[in-house]
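User: Hey, quick favor. My workstation is busy. Could you predict this chain's structure for me?
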Amino acid sequence: MRMYFSPFRIMQVRPDKHDLCLNCENMEICPLLNALRDDLAVIRHKSIRIDDCRFYKEYKRAS
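Assistant: No problem, here it is.
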């Protein structure tokens, strides 16, 4: 997961391909992502990796 500024200087949070977040059904309501987007939490390093999450629910794709 990485944080960066958009061209309009708005903080953006993007999951990496290694994060569980990309396949999570709860990505829009995730407390971690929302805290990072709202500046309530800050990543202290260039990036973090999400391997385990209690909110993770696998996204079911339509067959």
